[in-house]
Every structure is written in structure tokens, then in C-alpha cells.
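Case study.
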Amino acid sequence: MDWLIQFLPLNIERISVWIGVLCTAAIYSLLYRENPIYRFFEHMYIGLAAGYSLGPLFVDIIYRYWIEPIWGQGYWAWAFVVPYGMYLYFIFSERYGWISRIVIGTLIGASAGLFFQEFSSRYLPQLNSTLQKPLWVTSANPDVTGWDVFGNFLFIAILLSVLTYFTFSYEQRGGVKRVATLGRWFLMIGLGAIFGNTVMARMALLIGRIYYILSDWLMLPLGRGGG
Amino acid sequence: MSIPYLIAQWQLPQQGRLLYATLVVLGAFVLILGLVPLLQTLPPRGRRVLIVTITFLAGLFFAAEFFLPVDWTAIFPKDDPTRNFLTPAIQPAQNVLQIIGALALGLGTFGLVRLHMRNVVQKRAQWGYSVVLLVAFVTMAIFSILNTLSEKGVVTKTPLLERGFSILFDYTLVQLDAAMFSLIAFYIFSAAYRAFRIRSVEASILMFTAVVVLIGVVPLGAYISYTLLGLPQGPPPENADWWTQFLHSAGLPSIANWILTALNAPAQRAIEFGVGIGGLAMAIRLWLSLERGVT
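After joint prediction, the assembly is written out as follows.
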């Protein structure tokens, strides 16, 4: 009887938990088939997600980087940023639509410039570390074992074969085609590992849901774990 | 010191700052929006030149800041020798991008609301779901904005705001989010079945790797290897023969780890290099406005 009283949604905490379970059950109802309950909660989800984003991603940023510097610290030059950004909203006008492309151009140009930075700071160090892998044991690298050398050869072979597979500038024939086929097989190993990890991540979410239903809703003593 | 940085640092006086700031903002709106009729007089070619120039300059700033040598004291003796003359302006420029990005998010939200408002007003098929979306959007937007402002001390955090936001966010949005993404767990198996049904070398390699990684990284892999098969666990003892060393690394967790580090890592790196080179080519095309239809 005590369990039933605690279980029922008779206080705000239990109502909150019941809402969570209702949401989960409604989404899982899709496993049976497409139905109005699922579509109701699906639209609610989109509405909530869009509404939530306005707080941390719109108001927070505008307040922190625009309102606070102007009204709080008196940096008046920032006043021009929002009106300039508002040009984006001309996209809905047939006559003035092209003006929005000025701001879009700013974003695209800046993204391209930032990508040059990213390429240098992210990809070049990777290339550097790849080229620095020792392929034989010398007195300069006495700590390198035969197994390390084998691993490095394998690393370079896989890297080059996969890159060969991605070379579409000319028709792959003969030896190049064979290397590209090998590259495709190695690529499948990589994709298989990604697939395995993705399944794991989704299963972890599913376990989290089951744990929530069993522990938070049904209040079964499961111990710690889940999500 | 760059001129944009110096302008960005120019402050209004403390006395009457609220009034001055409001007047400056109103003036900025009038000035920038007043430019619209002027911009409209540009011929199509002039419009394109303007957009291409702005795109190029925006990209040039970030590229130049990164690639220019840091020590400019020969030209600007008072400058800091550990950074170039553009570096102080990089943070304000990134803040500008953040603001424009936020406005772009507002644009997307506006588009979503406009679409569903139209559904409701014109009573299109299944317009009831649009009502649900709009009600959820407005309710959550109010609580989310108030919650954000309360964290900044602009509005008071009342118990109603706290509880309402908690129900909407923790007990509804987070739950829907987790349920929606965990739903994929069911479909991923059916997708896997379809993929692996194709009997080819590639599908077999993919399946084998996925199964070994899946079993190897969970306790089941350790149970099969060390309890059922009785393989030795942990690193091999020093000076062990090659067979002992092999047995110590033949467990499913070790194989899964070797696949991830020795076989998967170089394949992923090759993909990354492909993405990087492709991204670089695309960035150059976008920067120089060679991609028609975007700018």
C-alpha cells in the first residue's frame, strides 16, 4: 500500500516522473506503428527543442556579447552588429532578399578563414605525427621494438591504401586498383568499428531509458548504474 | 593595434551611459537600415561585387591573423612581439560571428514558426499538430528565456519559474530527447541485418569488425575470453615466450582494442585527411566566391 501511494502521481515530483515515462512510452509507440500519439509528442519535442534553444543560444549570446558590452561597459561600436545581422531577415523579402546575402557572405567568408586555421592546427599535426613514425630501429630510437615497427608499417600501409581508394582523379587500373580494393576493405574495418561504437552508444541510451522506467518510475531497487 | 580593435574599445562615458547607449543603438538601427534604399540602387553586378568583397575580406581577416608572422614590432614598435597586429581583434571578431550566428538561429526559428502558423491559419492537413508545436514552442521559449535572464540576475528566479522550467526541460525535453535517440537502437539492428545480408567481402569484414568491437568492449567479451575460454588476463610476464604473449593478447577485449587502435585509427585518419583536403578546397572556393548560388 505504501508503495502504491509513493508510486501514484500525487505530488509534483511523482507527476514529473510520470510525465517523463509518458514521453518515453509515446515515443516508443512508434515501434508498433506510426500513430497519432507519437506524432503529438514528436511535434511537442520539436516545439520544445526550438523554444529551449532561444534561451541559451539566442538571448544568452545577445545579452553577453551585445547588450552587456553596450549598456554595461559602454562599448558603443557593438551597436552596429545586431542591425547588420538583422539584414539576414531580408531573406523573406522577394525584393530585398539579396541584402541577406551580405551577412551570409560574412559568415561564409569567416568560416572559410577559420577553416584555414583549423586545417593548419588540426590536420597538419596529424600529418606530421604520421610522417614521424619510425619504420626501422636505429640507434636514434632505441626504445622502438619490432612490434612497434610492424604497427607503424601497418599504419602507413592502411593510410595510403585508404587514401588511394579515395583518389578519383583518374581511373583506377591494375596495381592501383588492387591497392584501392585493399583500402576499401580497411575502410570497412573502420566503418565496422564506428558501427559497433554507434550501436553501443544507442544501447547505452536504451539502457538509460529502461533504468529510468524501472528505478525512477516503478521504484525498483536496482542499485547504481544506468543513466 | 588594428583600427577595428581600437574602435571596439572606445567607451561611452559612465555618466548617462544608459541614455547614450540607447541613443547610439537607435542611431545604429536607423543608419544600417537606412542604407537599405541606398543598397537597393546598386545594379546586379554591383551587388555581387559587394557580396564577393565582403566574403573575401571576412575570410582574409581570419586567414591573415593566423598566417602573418607574430612579431610586427619593426613596423609597430609599441606592439606586443608575441602576436601580430590583427590578434587583438580576433576575439571581438569571433564575438561578432557569435551574434550573427544567434541571429541566424532566430531566423531558423522564425521560419519554423511561420510555417506552422501558416498551417494553422490555412487549416492545412493535420494542422492540429502544428498547434501542439506552437504551444510547446511558446511555453518553452518563455520559460527558457526567463531562466536564462534569471541566471544573469535580470529577472528574479521564482519557484514557479524553477519548477516550470524543470518540468519542461528535465522531465519532458530531456526525456523525449533520450527516448528519440534510443529509438534508433531498435532500428540500427534491422539496418545491420539488411547491410550484412549482402554477401560480399566488404559486408563480411564490416560485420566481423562490428561484432568483435561490440562484444569486445562490453563485459561479455571478457567473460567469454577469460572465464569460458580460460585465456590469461592482463599483460604477459616479463621474458614470456611468444605463445604466452599471444595467449595474453588473444582475448576479445584485446583484439577489439587492437582493431580500434591499429586498424581503425589509420583508416579514420585517411578519412580525416580526405575531409580536410576536401574542406580546404571548398573553403577556398567559398572564400573566393567561386561557388555560385551561395554568395
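Observations recorded in class. The mean pLDDT of chain A is 90. Helices of chain A lie at 2-7, 12-28, 36-72, 81-85, 97-131, 146-165, 174-217. We will return to this complex in the next lecture.
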